[in-house]
Amino acid sequence: MKSKLKDVLLDLRKRKRALMAFNLQNLYHLEAAKLVSERLKVPLIIQFSERYLRLLDEKYGIEFLIKTYGNDFIYFHLDHCIDLQFIKRCIDFGFDSVMYDGSAFDIETNMKNTKIIIAHASKVGCLVEGELGKVSGVEDGFGEEGSSYAEIEEIETYVKETKIDLMALGIGNAHGFYDDLKGLKTAILKEASNKLDDQQFYVLHGGTGLPDSIIKETIDYGVVKINVSTQLKKHTMDLLKSYTSGNDLYNEISFNKLMTEGLSQLFEEYLMKYTQ
Ligand code: 13P
Hints:
The protein is α/β, with parallel strands linked by helices. The protein has one domain: TIM Barrel (Alpha-Beta Barrel). Helices cover 48% and strands 14% of the residues. It has eleven helices and eight strands. The protein has an eight-stranded parallel barrel, surrounded by nine helices. Strand 5, helix 7 (152-162) and strand 6 form a beta-alpha-beta unit. Helix 2 crosses helix 11 and helix 5 (84-92) runs parallel beside helix 6. The longest helix is centred in the C-terminal third of the chain and has 23 residues, at 252-274. The model has no long low-confidence stretch (mean pLDDT 95). 1,3-dihydroxyacetonephosphate is lined by residues 23, 79, 139, 175-176, 205-208, 227-231.
């Protein structure tokens, strides 16, 4: 029987490992994620930004995506979203977790809306991710430049009041590649590491470009979900470039193989490093 997402997270935390959450954009990505999870028998999260999920929903329907690309190792998650109706739609279709990102609002509004989503999600065992402090950068149309740091007192209030499952913190992390890591303050996570109860977990956004040592340090401080997006997009474009410079153009079968195998190799590297 398929393990519940909460149980997977609890097990990983015990083993000081983390669940990889890949932001996927198209059917090649989805095929590759399914392929690698079955090959390694390792859990992973397929997550969508709101923009791409709306696109895929329009073309194929959420039900089709879950049915076709789900299996015993894959969990579906909606990334940053403030549209309560759209979040509820994902919950109703059977997503394993959803994110309400109210980090741009004052904490009262953030908590109020988070609680609305938790009330809906908890009826069907869907986990909810919240955010405090802003992760910098625009991710598929969501967010803006300029980060802010999560504050310890706010974290304490937010996690106690909302009983959130998954907690993302702004610690100077950013979506996209980093120019430098001077603004990164893992000390915030360290200080916040004892603020959660044993059913709550930290999430690290902005996984692209972070050195292994930093990611491992955040796992030590309670991170159990690691988000990666930009690196996948870059890898996709690198694969496309390698295809167009080869001799096998106009051949969908070899193109499909290159994309799914190439992407699954990248997924595998992450899964072996942080989850397995
Ligand atoms: P990157 O684009 O930096 O990998 O961040 C992904 C992310 O945090 C998605 O929420």
